[in-house]
Write a structure and sequence with these properties.
- By secondary structure, the chain is of the alpha+beta class.
- It has a domain of 98 residues: 3-Layer(aba) Sandwich (Aminopeptidase), CATH 3.40.630.30.
- The protein contains three helices and eight strands, in the order βαβββαβαβββ.
- Strands 1, 2, 3, 4, 5, 6, 7 and 8 form an eight-stranded mixed beta sheet that branches.
- Helix 2 links the parallel strand 4 and strand 5.
- It is globular and about 40 Å long.
């Protein structure tokens, strides 16, 4: 019997990303946010390459299966671009990425803008709603924050 394949967790700064990995990350973000969610928006917002930005992802056999970006917003760390490939959903990868993101963030406060239907998911990791629901690119979002631990 062959061993079951496992997802490999990776983390890098922008400069630590090779072009093949960067392409795969951007393709996953476009496949889900632009195509699947039918939301034309400027994904390439100029923040991926900021010095304090960290990219975390799970891959298997060269496929990026889930991804998250952590931005340094000065007083807080901003979690965003949380995405899981359709073929990898249900495997718990997004939750594992959020847990790993919180390890990377350490004892600093963090924020995110959750798609409204995912607010309970983020609440499991200590995030609480900090403002009213708002529309971002036509999708309802909720601002959330997690205090320093």
């Amino acid at each position: 019997m062959l061993p079951e394949p496992h997802d490999e967790l990776r983390t890098a700064s922008f400069r630590g990303l090779d072009t093949t990995t960067l392409y795969a990350i951007l393709k996953l973000r476009a496949d889900v946010f632009v195509v699947e969610q039918e939301c034309a928006y400027g994904d390439l917002d100029g923040r991926d390459d900021e010095p304090g930005t960290r990219h975390l992802w799970f891959s298997r056999d060269g496929e990026i299966r889930a991804y998250v970006r952590i931005l340094d917003d000065g007083d807080v760390q901003r979690i965003g671009r949380v995405v899981t490939a359709r073929s990898a959903r249900g495997a718990g990868l997004a939750g594992r990425l959020i847990e790993e993101a919180l390890v990377v963030i350490g004892n600093r406060p963090s924020v995110l803008d959750a798609q409204a239907h995912l607010a309970k998911f983020y609440a499991k990791y200590g995030f609480v709603q900090t403002g009213p629901e708002f529309l971002e690119d036509g999708i309802p979002h909720i601002p959330m924050a997690r205090a320093a631990s």
